[in-house]
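ARCHIVE RECORD
Type: protein–small molecule complex
Small molecule: adenosine-5'-triphosphate
Source of inputs: curated submission
Record status: active
Notes field left blank by submitter.
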Amino acid sequence: MDIKESNTGEEKRSLSFVEQLVEEDLAKGKNGGRIQTRFPPEPNGYLHIGHAKAICMDFGVAERYHGVCNLRFDDTNPSKENTEYVENILNDISWLGFKWGDIYYASDYFQKLWDFAVWLIRKGLAYVDEQTSEQIAAQKGTPTTPGTDSPYRNRPVEENLQLFEKMNTPEAVEGSMVLRAKLDMANDNMHFRDPVIYRIIQTPHHRTGTKWHCYPMYDFAHGQSDYFEGVTHSICTLEFVPHRPLYDKLVDFLKECDGTAARGIDDFRPRQIEFNRLNLTYTMMSKRKLHALVDERLVNGWDDPRMPTLCGMRRRGYSPESVKNFIKSIGYTKFDALNDMALLEAAVREDLNKRAVRVSAVLDPVRLVITNYPEGRSEDMEAVDNPEDENSGTHAITFSRNLWMERADFMEDAPKKFFRMSPGREVRLKNAYIVKCTGCTKDAEGNVVEIQAEYDPESRSGLPGADRKVKGTLHWVSTDHCVKAEVREYDRLFSVENPSADERDFHELLNPDSLRTDRNCFVESYAARKRPGEYLQFQRIGYFMADPDGTQEAPVFNKTVGLKDTWAKQNK
Ligand code: ATP
Ligand code: MG
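STRUCTURE (tokenized, with ligand):
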């Protein structure tokens, strides 16, 4: 691929092949220099990170070339669509930070599309087929052998018109008839072998109610909608490459139908450009399977933090910037591939490092008593919210005699390089004092139930002379000044790298340990007051976000991602 630089200025970066094609069109003066794209979701589910890739391209091209990107809900199948999905899609696009021009619906064009279909019938270019879908499929032929004509292919125009009307009545039986375009049963491109363009559906539509009983197929709605709206570049994913000739052909017919072709006006036609879908390791994007996960309660809803949906990622604590940075980093190509989830997580870590407020939380607690610190006394220590952000403030964390520390930060017989708590060794308690471990207490089974240490009053963080060096710094919370919290840790949803390509039933591929809930964690009270949407780092552990299931008194946190990619190591 030859890489060119953008000529539009500010941000210098190499252009994707899609942008190169758009620039070629601009250079040729196509469409009077106008750029109009669209993002066309079908409102039959929630948006996932794959959609975000399409959104970044559709909106990105419009922004870059001072055009507009509209939304179009491709709502041509009422049996699967509803307004709940429409609303959530709008919400997710806003969360990503994009602003659309207008909102359109394919259902706005039902009358126009119907009229166009009637025009095709009159031209002898469409017919009603009364065969079953199995019979129609059996006659399609193969890419190397031509198909067989339907016995209804040469019906008179009048009969087709009558039957098409009949298809659009409440009495019409689903599957009893379809309207097919009469194109070429021997065409190398299977989509030209008399594609079905209308089918009967008796489920009421979420916008048009029971006005219609038969609905256009994707191929008979998408390109036409692009044309009606004035879309200049219809950017989509690679599976639509074989649809493109039909897309163009139907635009030709439309231009004949509306008279622009006869008047020699051929300067405007939307151009379809395809890029590779986003596929991520250890997850899948198929809406059908995501639906199944939700419906069978294998996850806790569309916004379960393990889901690849944007609402799931938001709940988990991913920032929109990290999602967009990840998409930028993988780029757009003309071949499908599998992208590593670890790359997404790296992008999340990098962005949250700049954003997250540092707090202390002890996830696997053991008691630590500072034996020379007076009973009943406490003092507020100053904690920097985010050392990576010079504009960030500070907050108070209360220190006292009785603390919680992480069980894994203590070892009785520690090797030399263990720079944590061990009898006779010194460590710094973050934002507080240097303490020297003096011993521990065990229960009858030999489990450590308490650790003792003595503090050095001269070593309070921030005091002159307090910069005495000790190797380890540990986090802690004060037992009387912390809040008990539930922490949810997530692992990969699927236990195989590419579940979409696996022949086994997807239920067998689910990771049984994808959610671990720990109800015995303690967080400093400042963290307990944080609400969903506020990015947090539990120091030395990872990034976390409050979950809407929690309250200030009983907070719940989702682990967004660990500080390091421990997962890669586990699987080596
Ligand atoms: P369905 O199975 O319902 O067709 P879909 O994932 O294609 O699901 P749409 O709502 O039709 O969903 O998709 C809207 C747009 O998002 C389309 O332009 C589609 O090409 C794009 N898109 C969908 N999935 C991905 C993906 N994994 N990567 C990139 N773009 C995607
Ligand atoms: Mg689709």
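CURATOR ANNOTATION: Residues 1-10 have pLDDT under 50 and may be disordered.
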